[in-house]
Model the fold of this input.
Amino acid sequence: MQSYLLAILEGSVLTIGVSLLALVVSIALGLIGAAAKLSGRPVLVAISTLYTTVVRGIPDLVVMLLVFYGGTIGLNNLLEWLGSEATVDINPFMAGVLTLGFIYGAYMVETFRGAILSIPKGQAEAAWAFGMGRVQTFVRITAPQMVRYALPGFTNNWLVLIKSTALVSLIGLKEMTYLAKQASAATRSPFVFFMFTAALFLIYTTVSLYALRKLNARYSLGTKRGTL
Amino acid sequence: MNWDVILEAKNLELFGTGILTTLGLLFSSLGVGAVLALVFALLLTGPWAAVRWIVGSYTYIIRGTPLLIQVYMIYYGLGQLEWIQARWDTMWPWTHFKEPFFCALLAFSLNTAGYTAEMLAGAIRETNAGEIEAAQAYGMNRFQVMLRIVLPSAMRRTLPAYSNEVVMMLQSTSLASAVPSLVDVTSAASRIYSDYYLPFEAYLAAAAIYLVATFCLIGVFRLAERQFLAHLAPRKG
Done:
């Protein structure tokens, strides 16, 4: 019993790893997508809109199965077509990180776009007047200010992402949920193991919520709040 | 790509069954969830601190743990309890705990109830103080104020957030495929994948079905918002 609980606890490292890496991917995609949507170029706007609409309309699980099973066959066909003898297996860890990153990137696009739009236009104009380029303006002026506007939406997306990592167990990654299911099949006491896993997830989401609230307070320093 | 396989009568029928299960799960869990959410929201904004705390912890736990684990907990976990084992052969309603559809439905309903209750409670708390004072000035009691003034307005204001929840719920029903012997759209696709080894065609077909369903739901909610939230819409012209 105890060894199973310990194994699940070890699996939590994998859960944290998948979620953090997927977060990095989703932030990158979110920034690129938001930049494309705000660029005003019809082709970029269309691609980015297609991305956010389609991904948010399909269940995470279906995208994951598509990438995991479809991706393996697709890659191998590509290799065969290129005349290579090698075969590749997409491992569940990479498939999980990439799909979760791809899915939550679509949600991040909307969060970041809203945050950038909330910054007064004069800020960027002033930066341009100082002779800063696009990249410099983003790094020095826009990014530090958008954090505050993006944090509430970002917090939501992150909490949903954490919970979605449980789905990676369905494509065979041996994280907490997978181990809990195996342990319950072996010992016939599923209740304990699922309770334990649920509690670990609850700790993870609670700690995240607490940390992001602190961060929010930090980035909201010096903001005047209206009182009724 | 080999789309002919998807269009075979047998496989179309499989997807048909899947769509019926998915929609059945979606609408019944939304129905049960909405009733529970209304009760929970009233308790969350009610006068008893202990009850507020209990319902608050419930929604916190539901919203802080993955739905997949909640489904496993009900489908596999409850069967471990001797109290249930002693009853599920003979005694109604415990006999239902052996049915996969019922277990999935119960997990989804409890889940959506947790999210919706918080939304509705938020809207109730945000109700304009002047409206409540006016109602009290008319001599309405607590119950009447709730029934006639606060709830009709709060439920309308929850509509935009609730439309998100309904779309999320549609996508969550794909987790029903984690319960063996339940054929929803996702497990129909998985079955075709394993029968023919055609992952792209099977899962893309499933994705298309979900996408169409999502757009229909969003359309319905747009119409509903135009009907019920007309007074909050930006003025034209």
About this structure: Chain B touches chain A through 41 residues (CB under 8 Å). The radius of gyration of chain B is 21 Å.
